[in-house]
Amino acid sequence: MFIFISYFFQFILLQSIGNPASYQAEKINKLFNYFNIVAACMLLLVCFLVIFICIKFKEKKSDLREPKQTTGNKKVEALMIGIPTLLLIWFFYQSLITMNAVASPVPLGEEADIIITGHQWWWEVYYPKANVITANEVHLPVGKHLLMEMRSADVIHDWWVPQLGNKMDLVPKINNYLWLDINKPGKYIGACSEFCGAQHAWMRINVVAEGENDFQNWLARNSKDAVIPKDSLTMKGAEIFQTQTCASCHRIQGTAATSNVGPDLTHVASRSELLTGLMKNNEANLYKWINHPQQVKPGARMPDFKYGNDSVNAIVHYLAQLK
Amino acid sequence: MNQSIQIPEPTSAFPGIGVSSDQGLLQWISSVDHKMIGIMYLLIALIFFLIGGAEALLIRIQLAEPVNHFLTPEAYDQIFTMHGTTMIFLVAMPAVLGFAVYFTPLMIGANEMAFPRMNSFSLWITFFGGLLLYFSFIAGGGPDAGWFNYAPLNFFRIIQRLDRKLSKP
């Protein structure tokens, strides 16, 4: 019944645990369903007994004698202790097995495949083996035993993509690890699950899981330096970007901008969403955001620079061709 | 040890519940009687329960539909933080204390709490503590780091607030 309900809701909800897409999520989902089925059986049993006893032992008009008085029943008592004990032992065992399968210890010296760093309010994604840095849109290969390292640049965040398994806290100055074996390609949506400040609600996770070939192609494209601006408008945008404070927070590979206070913008135009899921990535939205950041995402680290319309236009054109 | 204990009857000089006096509200405010203090604890819990409940309603209105602009992010954070803080520290705890202060002396057969003036002091410090917390809404924004106030988020908020205050022209 619960499984049915969760499958029903997954068509309505953006995020759902109902349709696992990784080995870890499958394990967790299986355990969750065990708990649900047993809990549902117990609920039905209790409801049945309450109704049954109410009807069976109802006072009869014809029989007004005092009912038979009993004190305790050792067999029933042993059953009522024994059955929950067995159930608890079984669930404890299942939980341990699941925990061990999902979060097995990380061997010493094991190098992470992906390093995720939580920032207020965006995700920095670093692929140390390919030396690629990107942001917000997390591309992951299907069918690999991935080790994700979780870090935080400021406050505690929490990584949770329900279809991909368990949560993991991103704690400042502590590295946490998460194993991930994705087995279905697709787009998975998650959200920061630890209250992290004003824009916590718009700190969504966008995972793109793709086959090994697609992933390697994507990685190769993203390891390249940013496109060099060609026409005069984009050149003007690039100049504003480098000279008027954008470069002090953002990074564009192949230019002098190397900071990680704000998201990496090397291939920003290739991403589908802006601002961790707040808006679709197009020039109109980019214009809105750069023109008045504090109206679009109040509290975000990016201040209102009060550029003129021409300057904003130039920056938007520059960013929109960074494919 | 067999001395009999003298339990004074409430008089107008030392009034309790059911003793008529001409003191009116002052009788309650100045009271050190454990039953009156217990009742006042429960009243405080009730007042803050209504406030906390109103905050819960605001949270639910905000969450009634996606991408709702009923509350700004800052206001929402303040309200859910204060909802949690209120319900735990200004409702649940005073309510438990109210019952404890009212019933414990009756259950153990004592005529009063051991330190009646301290008992009264605890009540009023709870009440004014709650008022001080709510005063922060008038004084530039309530607490907004969640009622658990995890470090370093709580600390970050202080810095950001100071920044905003200092950078304002």
Detailed description of the structure:
The complex is a heterodimer of chains A (323) and B (169). Chain A is an alpha+beta fold. Helices cover 38% and strands 17% of the residues of chain A. Chain A has a 5-stranded mixed sheet with strand order 3-2-1-5-8. A 3-stranded mixed sheet of chain A has the order 4-10-9. A two-stranded antiparallel ribbon of chain A has the order 6-7. Chain A is elongated, with a radius of gyration of 27 Å. Chain B is mostly helical and 169 residues long. Chain B has one domain. Chain B contains 5 helices and no strands. Chain B has helices at residues 25-29, 34-62, 73-108, 116-138, 153-167. In chain B, helix 2 runs antiparallel to helix 3 and helix 3 runs antiparallel to helix 4. Chain B is elongated and about 70 Å long. At the A-B interface, loops of A face helix 3 and helix 5 of B.
Index terms:
heterodimer; A: 323 residues; alpha+beta; Immunoglobulin-like; 3 domains; B: 169 residues; mainly alpha; 5 helices; elongated
Describe this structure in a few short sentences.
The complex is a heterodimer of chains A (323) and B (169). Chain A is α+β, with helices and mostly antiparallel strands and 323 residues long.
